[in-house]
Amino acid sequence: MKNKNQQEEIKNDNLKPIKIKIKSNLPANKPKIAIVALTSCEGCQFALLDLGEKFLELVEKVEMIDWGMIEDEEDSGVSLDIAIVEGSPITEENIKTLKKLRERSKLLVVLGNCAAMGGVPEIKNYQEGKNTIKHVYKYIQGIENVEIKEVDNFVKVDFTFPGCPITGEEFLKYFPTLLEGKIPERADQPVCVECKARGNRCLLLDGKPCFGPMIQGGCDAVCPSSRMMCQGCRGLRPKGNVKAMRATLKKMMTDEEFENVTEIFGLRDSVEEREK
Ligand code: SF4
Ligand code: SF4
Ligand code: SF4
Q1: pLDDT per residue over 81-120, tens digit each?
Q2: Within 13 Å of residue 127, how many CA atoms lie on the same side as its CB?
Q3: Extents of the domains making up the chain
Q4: What's the CATH number for 32-179?
Q5: Which of 113, 122, 151, 265 maximizes ligand 1 atoms within 8 Å of its Cβ, making it the mutation to test the pocket?
Q6: Contacts for 209 with CB less than 8 Å, ≥ 6 apart
Q7: Which of 230, 233, 237 for a ligand 2 pocket mutation test, highest count of atoms within 8 Å of Cβ?
Q8: Residue 204: CB within 6 Å of ligand 2?
Q9: Does 230 sit in the ligand 3 pocket, CB within 6 Å?
Q10: By the 8 A CB rule, do 212 and 191 touch?
């Protein structure tokens, strides 16, 4: 859409060019945004839509250049203030799209566990020794079987909205700062803080495993509030003490069980890195 500063030339009867101003409801300075899905289930984008009115109010403040999930219009390819990326860069096309987005965006932020940590697809990396692909496809010739890598293996990531799916309220909290061109600061706070605030009895006290103390909070402790262990979809918190967590959990789960749970959301490589 043309903004109010853009002008068009038309010719009058005397063939002298005159200028008219094209009016637009968009102020020229609205930040330009694109929301792009790579390989994903699109659940994180649905978490945005689930915000309803609150999300629409936010959308009013931006110029949406591309959002394939809700509109068919071609991306004009203009420079962006923020590119929001969901999903894993798995195919060659995904990787090309991602690199192009980075080139034209001041900030690139990722939405969700797949983009940030490899997500559920990363289970394949850990299980490849067991030939997982043969359990899925009868004939594997011609099937690309690439290693799953997080977005930051390909391009610089300025900010992450973690989780599977992301927490909509957290998006509303931090996105305005990103719109100002700044990177928000997130407190290093475990899931346990919100779990306690909700008045839950700690699963560990009942001898049941939970990753809460080493995992980045911000999800309102949804899993332990339903008496399910935190499996770490939001990733390790910067100061999360993996060794202490593992020592505590040894009384509640075997090493194999621990490993299996860390594979669900692509947490295993981060845990191994932290344990070195
Ligand atoms: S993080 Fe979860 S909800 Fe989001 S795209 Fe990946 S699988 Fe879907
Ligand atoms: S149940 Fe889990 S998240 Fe809640 S306080 Fe205990 S360890 Fe922390
Ligand atoms: S409790 Fe843990 S697994 Fe559940 S949403 Fe929060 S971080 Fe993810």
Answers
A1: 999 999 999 999 999 999 999 999 999 999 999 999 999 9
A2: 19
A3: 32-179, 191-264
A4: 3.40.50.700
A5: 113
A6: 203, 229, 249, 252, 253, 257, 258, 261
A7: 230
A8: yes
A9: yes
A10: yes
